[in-house]
C-alpha cells in the first residue's frame, strides 16, 4: 500500500495535524510492506519521504490562498505520482483536498480535524470577518467530504457533528484517534503539591482554550498561590493576556508564547496540573500527552474531551465557560492527593487506546478500505 499524505502543517509542530503528520512517517520503518510519503508547504528542505510544495501567492491573491492551495497541492500530487505511484491520496485537511477529490483518478480520503467550520450556522452567526470566512469554508468542506471516498474523524463527538451538519452517511466516516508516542514519554506517578501550585496551559488559540475562564477561576481561589505557565499564544497577545490577571498578587504568570514540542514536554514534567478549560475542542491531543506524563488534568465537558478523560475517571471536568465550576474542580484536584493518584493511574492505563501503533494500523486499514470498489453513499 502506497499512500501520499498532503498536509499544510508539518515542520512547525504546534498543532494536532502537524504532530500526526510527523508521527505517521514511522509506518515506513515499522511496516515496510507499506510506504507513506508526505507533501507539504511547511518544510525548509526536502528530506526522505517528504516533498515540498512551493506556494507563492501575490498580495492580490493572498486572500484566496486557502482556495488556491487545493489546485497547487493537486498539481504537485500528480507530479509525485510519476515517481511514487500511490494507491490512495490522503488530505490532512479535507477542504484543501476538494479539487483532488473531484478529479483524481486515485481514491481520496479527507480528514476533518476540528469543528471550527462544522458548528457555524445562521443561528450563531456574527457579522464579522471570522464568521463569514467560516461560513464559506463550511460549504466547501461539506462539498469536499461528499466527494471524498472516505472521511476521517478524530473523535466520536466530531463524527456526530459530521453526520448532523454535513448529512454524511455514518458508514463513510472512519474514526481515527490521534496518537502520542508513549515510548518517548516517562510517566511520573503520585505528584505531591507544594506552593505555589504550578499550572500549565497550552493552547495557541487561548480564547478557544478558555484562558479567560481559567483567569476568573484562579481569582476565586485567592487563598492559594499559583504559578501559571502559558504556552502557545503569539507574543502579540502577551499584553492582553496579562490584563486578564491584573490585581491578583496570588497568581504569577510565566508567559512562554510558542514553544517546541520538546519544551512543552519538559514543562509537563515539572508542573502540578494541566488545565486547558476549552470552550470548543474536537479531541484534545495535549490532554492525552498530559495523561501520559501523569500530570493531573482539569478540563471541560466539551467536544471530544470527555472521550479522553473517560467522562471524569481520568481527570476533573467542569462545565464549559463556567468559572465557578472550574474553580471547584481545581480545588478538588489540589486538595485530594489520593484521588489525584488514582485518576493519574486510570489515565495512564486508559490512553493505551491512543498508542501510536494502534493509530498506524487503523490508518493503514482506512487507506486499504478506500481502495476497495466504490460504494455510493447517499445523504440523509
UniProtKB/TrEMBL annotation:
Keyword hit for Transferase: yes
Glycosyltransferase subfamily 4-like N-terminal domain location: 34-183
Keyword list, A-Z: Transferase
Cross-referenced SUPFAM superfamilies: UDP-Glycosyltransferase/glycogen phosphorylase (SSF53756)
GO molecular function list: glycosyltransferase activity
Gene3D superfamilies, A to Z: Glycogen Phosphorylase B
Ranges of residues in domain Glycosyl transferase family: 196-349
The protein's name: Glycosyltransferase family 4 protein
Organism: Rhodocytophaga rosea
Amino acid at each position: 500500500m502506497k499512500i501520499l499524505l498532503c498536509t499544510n502543517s508539518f515542520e512547525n509542530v504546534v498543532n494536532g495535524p502537524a504532530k500526526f503528520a510527523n508521527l505517521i512517517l514511522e509506518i515506513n520503518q515499522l511496516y515496510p510492506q507499506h510506504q507513506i510519503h508526505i507533501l507539504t508547504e511547511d518544510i525548509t528542505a526536502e528530506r526522505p519521504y517528504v516533498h515540498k510544495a512551493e506556494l507563492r501567492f501575490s498580495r492580490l491573491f493572498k486572500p484566496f490562498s486557502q482556495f488556491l492551495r487545493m489546485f497547487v497541492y493537486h498539481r504537485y500530487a500528480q507530479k509525485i505520482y510519476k515517481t511514487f505511484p500511490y494507491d490512495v491520496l490522503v488530505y490532512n485537511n479535507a477542504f484543501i483536498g476538494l479539487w483532488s477529490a473531484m478529479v483524481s483518478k486515485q481514491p481520496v480520503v479527507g480528514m476533518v480535524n476540528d469543528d471550527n467550520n462544522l458548528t457555524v450556522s445562521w443561528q450563531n452567526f456574527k457579522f464579522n470577518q471570522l464568521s463569514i470566512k467560516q461560513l464559506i469554508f463550511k460549504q466547501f468542506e461539506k462539498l469536499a467530504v461528499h466527494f471524498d471516498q472516505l472521511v476521517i474523524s478524530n473523535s466520536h463527538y466530531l463524527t456526530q457533528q459530521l453526520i448532523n451538519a454535513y448529512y454524511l452517511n455514518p458508514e463513510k466516516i472512519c474514526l481515527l484517534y490521534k496518537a502520542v508516542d508513549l515510548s518517548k514519554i516517562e510517566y511520573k506517578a503520585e505528584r505531591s503539591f507544594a506552593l505555589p501550585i504550578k499550572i500549565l496551559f497550552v493552547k495557541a488559540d487561548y480564547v478557544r482554550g478558555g484562558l479567560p475562564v481559567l483567569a476568573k477561576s484562579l481569582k476565586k481561589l485567592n487563598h492559594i498561590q499559583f504559578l501559571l505557565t502559558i504556552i502557545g499564544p503569539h507574543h502579540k497577545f502577551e499584553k492582553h493576556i496579562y490584563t486578564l490577571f491584573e490585581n491578583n498578587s496570588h497568581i504569577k504568570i510565566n508567559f512562554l508564547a510558542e514553544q517546541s514540542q520538546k519544551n512543552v514536554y519538559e514543562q509537563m514534567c515539572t508542573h502540578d496540573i494541566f488545565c486547558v478549560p476549552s470552550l470548543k475542542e474536537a479531541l484534545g491531543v495535549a490532554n492525552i500527552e498530559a495523561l501520559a506524563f501523569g500530570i493531573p488534568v482539569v478540563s471541560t465537558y466539551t467536544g471530544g474531551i470527555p472521550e479522553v478523560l473517560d467522562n471524569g475517571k481520568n481527570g476533573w471536568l467542569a462545565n464549559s465557560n463556567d468559572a465557578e465550576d472550574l474553580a471547584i474542580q481545581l480545588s478538588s484536584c489540589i486538595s485530594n492527593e489520593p484521588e489525584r493518584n488514582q485518576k493519574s493511574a486510570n489515565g495512564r492505563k486508559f490512553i493505551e487506546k491512543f498508542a501510536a501503533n494502534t493509530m498506524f494500523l487503523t490508518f493503514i486499514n482506512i487507506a486499504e478500505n478506500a481502495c476497495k470498489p466504490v460504494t455510493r453513499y447517499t445523504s440523509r
